[in-house]
Design a protein that fits this description.
By secondary structure, the chain is of the alpha/beta class. It contains nine helices and eight strands. α1 (18-31) packs parallel to α2 (43-50) and α3 runs parallel beside α5. The longest helix has 17 residues, at 102-118. This is Deoxyribose-phosphate aldolase.
Length: 220
């Protein structure tokens, strides 16, 4: 298993510095990670550091709580695309889920998907599975499958519970085969990353990516 190609190497802490982003990108070059996931502020910089490598540039929209206005998320999406992002990890409005306002969520995704598809970018929908009921996760799968998103993503890493094998299995059982799953939040070991991949994840979001790769080599 080439675990490195499953990983979005990530730095999204509120104190992220230019040096943090540079180090992240250099590690992406060294280890050939699938993507470098950086705060919107650093997308242009990451593009310079990564150049013509295999590593894609990912950033976050509506992060980390998802309750910003639709118009704000659309503006963030436009700016991220202009700055050079290849992949957009969008936090949906969790408050709307809890209010059972599926009409709002449908309006939100429709507005964002238009931009993403027009510019041929990849979209990952973050649902924060650790704080949702099973039936809410299933409804999310049904809604976002209808819009043909590229990935459903478990977590931001900011909720009290991150990725779980159970959530990945539930999502996989309720999504069409063409929609992939990204597991993120609390993934610090190769053993856990492999469990999530075996459960159906095809992408792993992690900041402990280098350690995960080293452990995978030891395991082999």
């Amino acid at each position: 298993m080439e675990i490195n190609r499953y990983i979005d190497h990530t730095v999204l802490k509120p104190t992220t510095t230019l040096e943090d982003v540079k180090q992240l990108c250099m590690q992406c070059v060294e280890y050939d990670f699938a993507a470098a996931c950086v705060p919107p502020l650093y997308v242009k910089l990451a593009k310079q550091f990564l150049g013509a490598t295999n590593t894609k540039i990912a950033t976050v929209i509506g992060f980390p709580f998802g309750y910003s206005a639709i118009e704000a998320k659309v503006a963030e999406t436009v700016l991220a695309i202009v700055d050079g992002a290849d992949e957009l990890d969008v936090v949906i409005n969790i408050s709307a889920i809890k209010n059972k306002d599926w009409e709002y969520l449908e309006k939100e995704i429709a507005n964002i998907m238009y931009l993403v598809r027009e510019k041929k970018k990849v979209i990952k929908i973050i649902i924060e599975s650790g704080i949702l009921l099973e039936e809410e996760i299933v409804q999310c799968c049904q809604l976002y499958a209808k819009y043909g998103v590229d990935f459903m993503k478990t977590s931001t890493g900011y909720a009290e519970r991150g990725a779980t094998v159970e959530a990945v299995k539930l999502m996989r059982a309720n999504l069409p085969a063409n929609i992939q799953i990204k597991a993120s939040g609390g993934i610090r070991t190769f053993a856990f990353a492999k469990e999530l991949i075996d459960a159906g994840a095809t992408r792993i979001g992690a900041s402990a990516s280098v350690n995960i790769v080293k452990e995978s080599k030891e395991a082999q």
